[in-house]
Amino acid sequence: MSEEQERKVLDLKEGEDNVKVRVRVLETSDPKVIQTRKGPKTISEAIVGDETGRIKLTLWGKHAGTLKKGDAVEISGAWTTQYRGKVQINVGYKGEIKQVEDESVPEESDVPESMPEAENPFQYRRRNYRSQGYGYGGRSYK
Q1: Residue numbers of the domain that contains 71
Q2: Average pLDDT over residues 16-30
Q3: DSSP states of 92-115
Q4: What is the CATH classification number for the domain harbouring 80?
Q5: Side-chain half-sphere of 18: how many Cα atoms within 13 Å?
Q6: Over the stretch 47-89, which tens digit does the pLDDT of each residue have?
Q7: Other CB atoms closer than 10 Å to residue 65's CB: what's the count?
Q8: Among the residues of 58-104, which ranges form H helices?
Q9: How many CA atoms lie within 13 A of 31 on its CB side?
Q10: Which of 46, 50, 58, 65 has its CA 20 to 30 A from that of 33?
């Protein structure tokens, strides 16, 4: 596994794995249960940002509902997807979220409105699980 390097929100692209960001939590939602191909999963969503922009974050499983507005956090082991032309970041069971020094991320009022754009907003790409031992690869649809 490659070593994570801290990234800036606006530099994120869809389809990346092992992503690490340091962000301020701007908004949160309550956990909810959704139906997936692998059965029901608990998720919650948040908007987080740094000095370059903001991004939608989906928290899966044990991470759902753990953030609150105003938190300064470092997220590692995350992956990116895209939805409706915008890049999103996801953190699941292999990911970590830890509190960081409040001064290490900008205040909410200092986070710009810009969001990372997907390079190909009409492409659907499933996450590639082959490298994680699940035995199926991702597929792209154009």
Answers
A1: 6-132
A2: 97
A3: -TT-EEEE--GGGS--GGGS-S--
A4: 2.40.50.140
A5: 7
A6: 999 999 999 999 999 999 999 999 999 999 999 999 999 999 9
A7: 16
A8: none
A9: 14
A10: 50
